[in-house]
From TrEMBL:
<feature type="binding site">
    <location>
        <begin position="119"/>
        <end position="129"/>
    </location>
    <ligand>
        <name>ATP</name>
    </ligand>
</feature>
<feature type="active site">
    <location>
        <position position="161"/>
    </location>
</feature>
<dbReference type="GO" id="GO:0050515">
    <property type="term" value="F:4-(cytidine 5'-diphospho)-2-C-methyl-D-erythritol kinase activity"/>
</dbReference>
<dbReference type="Pfam" id="PF08544">
    <property type="entry name" value="GHMP_kinases_C"/>
</dbReference>
<keyword id="KW-0808">Transferase</keyword>
<keyword id="KW-0418">Kinase</keyword>
<dbReference type="InterPro" id="IPR004424">
    <property type="entry name" value="IspE"/>
</dbReference>
<feature type="domain" description="GHMP kinase C-terminal">
    <location>
        <begin position="242"/>
        <end position="300"/>
    </location>
</feature>
<feature type="active site">
    <location>
        <position position="17"/>
    </location>
</feature>
<dbReference type="GO" id="GO:0005524">
    <property type="term" value="F:ATP binding"/>
</dbReference>
<dbReference type="InterPro" id="IPR013750">
    <property type="entry name" value="GHMP_kinase_C_dom"/>
</dbReference>
<dbReference type="GO" id="GO:0016114">
    <property type="term" value="P:terpenoid biosynthetic process"/>
</dbReference>
<dbReference type="InterPro" id="IPR006204">
    <property type="entry name" value="GHMP_kinase_N_dom"/>
</dbReference>
<keyword id="KW-0067">ATP-binding</keyword>
<dbReference type="GO" id="GO:0019288">
    <property type="term" value="P:isopentenyl diphosphate biosynthetic process, methylerythritol 4-phosphate pathway"/>
</dbReference>
<comment type="function">
    <text>Catalyzes the phosphorylation of the position 2 hydroxy group of 4-diphosphocytidyl-2C-methyl-D-erythritol.</text>
</comment>
<dbReference type="InterPro" id="IPR036554">
    <property type="entry name" value="GHMP_kinase_C_sf"/>
</dbReference>
């Protein structure tokens, strides 16, 4: 995440993520899956601001970014392309700040403004990134200044993907391998990637995708991909990527197969669904290639299209 502490508030840009690799290892007794995934933060951002107040109330103002909403409306499927925004009490941002307030016995409250650009139900991690940003910003706004380990401990109570975002943007490399339910994070210094994200009309329920998935007899290995990301050699990226949730997502949304066929014809380095879908991504050779691929995808009216780069300390320096 990218953050700025101002006189009266803390402002954070919360990045999206993609899963370059996602394998399921076993079903746990608690109903979750033991998994291994390589996550990468990318430069598509929600904007969150936390203003501390003397009163103890928490007030969340959550809406789509006006430019993003206009763009989706122009494409003719705004609700299908952007997804739903949950009401305050069930919004992960509100629940995250409420948890922090309770656990740290904070007597004050906050006004929270969230303007979203990351489509929901896309596998791009928008809600999880927003929750991480909210925990970080509220900790700063209330002068708690909690360490990342403590924020990650709180985040893991709310969602498996959330701790990853404490290692992105100004806080880390933005590339990590995650295990357990996804909450055990091992960051690594990977190379910059230029990509195109696609959000087709209609999302995929994460719970439904996991309910339909089947465990592999022999799990795929992430070793080759991990070595490629650490090598800084663009020619070493494997063309075939793994996401064990692709098969059940294809049963739910026919858009996944359509996007795979289109990307196959675009001369990209590799392509795959992110998370539980329906969001899709294509890895491109460089920034110019990414813009060219994005233009071709937009011309085919496949949905919302975003040319992006990886979002970590190394990317920010380049």
């Amino acid at each position: 995440m990218l953050f700025q502490r101002l006189a009266s508030k803390v402002s954070v840009l919360a990045p999206a993520k993609i899963n370059l690799f996602l394998e399921l290892l076993e079903k746990r007794p608690d109903g979750f899956h033991e998994l291994e995934t390589i996550m990468v933060a990318v430069s598509l951002f929600d904007r969150l601001e936390v203003t501390p107040t003397e009163a103890s109330d928490l007030i969340l103002d959550c809406a789509w970014d006006s430019g993003q909403l206009a763009r989706a409306t122009q494409l003719g499927h705004s609700s299908q392309l952007l997804g739903d925004l949950p009401p305050q009490d069930s919004n992960l941002v509100y629940r995250a700040v409420k948890l922090l307030q309770t656990e740290e016995n904070v007597p004050h409250g906050a006004r929270i403004a969230l303007r979203k650009c990351i489509p929901s139900a896309s596998g791009f991690g928008g809600a999880s990134s927003d929750a991480a940003a909210a925990l970080f910003a509220a900790s700063q706004a209330w002068n708690l200044n909690l360490p990342i380990d403590r924020l990650s401990e709180l985040a893991a109570k709310l969602g498996s993907d959330i701790p990853f975002f404490f290692y992105a943007g100004q806080l880390g490399s933005g590339q990590a391998i995650a295990t357990g339910r996804g909450e055990n994070i091992e960051p690594f210094p990977g190379r910059r990637l230029d990509l195109v994200l696609i959000r087709p009309p209609g999302g995929v329920s994460t719970a439904e995708a996991y309910r339909r998935c089947q465990l592999p007899e022999v799990p795929d290995s992430s070793n080759k991909l991990l070595a490629s990301l650490k090598s800084h050699q663009s020619t070493s990226m494997p063309r075939q990527l793994t996401n064990r949730l692709t098969r059940p997502a294809r049963e739910i949304s026919t858009r996944i197969d359509q996007l795979a066929k289109i990307c196959e014809q675009l001369d990209v380095v590799a392509h795959q669904m992110s998370g539980s879908g329906s969001g899709y991504f294509a890895i491109c050779r460089n920034r110019v290639h990414a813009r060219r691929v994005a233009a071709k995808l937009q011309a085919q009216n496949v949905g919302m299209v975003f040319p992006v780069t990886t979002c970590g300390l190394q990317s920010l320096r380049n």
